[in-house]
């Protein structure tokens, strides 16, 4: 288990509890009362820490190395029904953007999302979750296939941004994202968007237009990361915590600003603290969201989407 800097008091108490249990097991001393006291203090410390997280601490949690990624959710929710589909039929198969058909119960869905790696090798293979233009074009191809066969679309966002390399710009990164945004507003099937970790900039928006946009409690969604915002405004990453607060990037802020429709509650300690519970909650959220949308006509789905996004940023004095 890896701990973030603000989680160190939890780490200390867990180590004390482990030692207490070992002492009780290896000697005749009754330490049950001491263990109970430590357990009580540990539970209270967890509540106090996770109840009062700052925006920057939520950003740190969203990047936790043990946090589940897109394929973890898909495999847990769909099991062996998931069939991954590859390629944009033009350049190549982008490993940072994954997609395919999967079932929840008897209902088929088209799942599309950014995938990060677990170690150095897989992070390079997945390009750190940063898709190239062919990734967005693959996503659009899958969405169009879903529309053709009347299959609802679920997109899963977890990216530090679209890949900013020279070759990506040469192949039309901006155009690919803009095309996706346009086509997603017109898609005639239900679109459900889940933000499970980092939701940064156009990289997130390229698969982020939906009838229902839902966000995990410790995810973030913003036009820029706190570090990059800090480096632009203060020429240094040192003000990232101030930037995180100012950007209003947390799930709570996004809901208040009507950028998202709902917040998916995470277990105490984050999604990685109890993966099974997180997967169950996400599955139930997808099912209930689809039930809300399944009886709408294609025209109603498009109008619902257009109305939602055209109202964003409107100020009424």
Can you put this structure into words, describing what you see?
With 317 residues, the protein is an alpha/beta fold. The chain is 49% helix and 15% strand. It has helices at 8-26, 32-51, 55-62, 70-78, 120-125, 133-148, 166-170, 173-186, 201-205, 226-234, 240-246, 251-256, 275-293, 298-310, and strands spanning 83-84, 97-104, 107-114, 153-159, 191-200, 212-216, 220-222, 262-264. Strands 1, 2, 3, 4, 5, 6, 7 and 8 form an 8-stranded mixed sheet that branches. The chain starts with 7 loop residues before the first helix and ends in a 7-residue tail after the last helix.
- What is the approximate shape? globular
**Helix/strand structural class:** alpha/beta
Main beta sheet: strand number and arrangement?
8 strands, mixed
Extract low-pLDDT stretches: none
Strand portion? 5-15%
Q: Roughly how many Å apart are the termini? A: 50 Å
Provide the residue-averaged pLDDT. Answer: 94
The value of Rg in angstroms is 21 Å
Give the helix level as a range of percent. 40-55%
How many β-strand stretches? 8
- Helical element count? 14
Question: How do the SSEs run, as a string of H and E?
Answer: HHHHEEEHHEHHEHEEHHHEHH
């Amino acid at each position: 288990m890896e701990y973030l800097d603000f989680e160190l008091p939890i780490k200390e108490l867990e180590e004390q509890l482990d030692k207490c249990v070992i002492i009780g097991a290896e000697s005749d001393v009754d330490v049950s009362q001491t263990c109970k006291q430590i357990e009580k203090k540990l539970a209270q410390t967890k509540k106090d820490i996770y109840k009062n997280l700052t925006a920057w601490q939520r950003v740190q949690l969203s990047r936790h190395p043990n946090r589940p990624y897109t394929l973890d959710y898909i495999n847990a929710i769909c099991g062996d029904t998931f069939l991954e589909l590859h390629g944009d039929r033009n350049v190549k198969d982008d490993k940072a953007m994954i997609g395919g058909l999967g079932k929840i119960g008897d209902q088929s869905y088209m799942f599309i999302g950014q995938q990060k790696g677990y170690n150095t090798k897989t992070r390079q293979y997945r390009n750190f979750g940063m898709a190239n233009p062919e990734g967005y074009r693959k996503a659009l191809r899958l969405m169009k296939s879903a529309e053709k066969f009347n299959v609802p679309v679920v997109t899963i966002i977890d990216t530090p941004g679209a890949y900013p390399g020279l070759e990506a710009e040469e192949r039309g990164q901006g155009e690919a994202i803009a095309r996706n945004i346009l086509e997603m507003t017109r898609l005639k099937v239900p679109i459900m968007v889940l933000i499970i970790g980092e939701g940064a900039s156009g990289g997130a928006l390229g698969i982020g237009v939906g009838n229902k946009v839902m966000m995990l409690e410790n995810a973030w969604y913003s036009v820029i990361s706190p570090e990059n915002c800090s480096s632009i405004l203060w020429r240094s990453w040192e003000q990232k915590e101030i930037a995180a607060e100012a950007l209003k990037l947390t799930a709570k802020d996004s809901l208040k600003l009507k950028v998202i429709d709902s917040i998916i509650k995470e277990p105490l300690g984050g999604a990685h603290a109890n993966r099974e519970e997180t997967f169950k909650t996400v599955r139930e959220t997808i099912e209930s969201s689809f039930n809300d949308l399944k009886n709408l006509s294609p025209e109603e789905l498009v109008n619902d989407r257009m109305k939602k996004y055209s109202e964003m940023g409107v100020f009424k004095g």
